[in-house]
Amino acid sequence: MDFDVVDITNLNRQHYTMKDLGIPKTLALVEQLEAINPYLTYETYTERVVPSNVERLFSGCDVVVEAFDKPDQKAMLLENLLTRLPEKPVVSEPRQKDRKVGAKPAQTRNADTRLVQLSLNIRAVAFHQCAMQLFFG
């Protein structure tokens, strides 16, 4: 799921090549995945994630893996998942570039402290769901 197209600035940090420039990221990635395993079915969504479509986009997923670049987008998704789909396991981690360069671990924190609390709440829900499935099937 992504609304963006492959740009030259993506090439040094994402798995795209020069031939992918200008192509929607979702289509370029599916092409690579199909080359690896053509026997799977891939679903792509070339759209921006906004509060009004979170439930439609993620309700059918077993697990949500969040990888937003910007803290405000990350917070929006996590907040909406927590309120609209509270049972949904989410994998989310602050990205390296969101951390202060040269900061000591105690000083390193996400730009949005509310995001940290949301992330902890979602992890607790996900852990609880996994534990319940392991112990009670």
- For the secondary structure, the number of strands is 2
| Radius of gyration based on Cα positions | 17 Å
Strands side by side in the biggest sheet: 1-2
Helix and strand sequence: HHEHEH
As residue ranges, the low-confidence spans are 101-114
The amount of beta strand, in percent, is: under 5%
How would you classify the helix and strand content by structural class?
mainly alpha
What form results from the Cα inertia axes? Answer: globular
Percent helix: 40-55%
Can you walk me through this structure?
The protein is mainly alpha-helical and 137 residues long. It is 40% helix and 3% strand. It is built from four helices and two strands, in the order H-H-E-H-E-H. The protein has a two-stranded parallel sheet with strand order 1-2. Helix 3 (71-84) links the parallel strand 1 and strand 2 (90-91). Helix 3 packs across helix 4 (113-136). The longest helix is centred in the last third of the chain and has 24 residues, at 113-136. The chain is globular, with a radius of gyration of 17 Å. It starts with 24 loop residues before the first helix and ends with a helix. Residues 101-114 have low confidence and may be disordered.
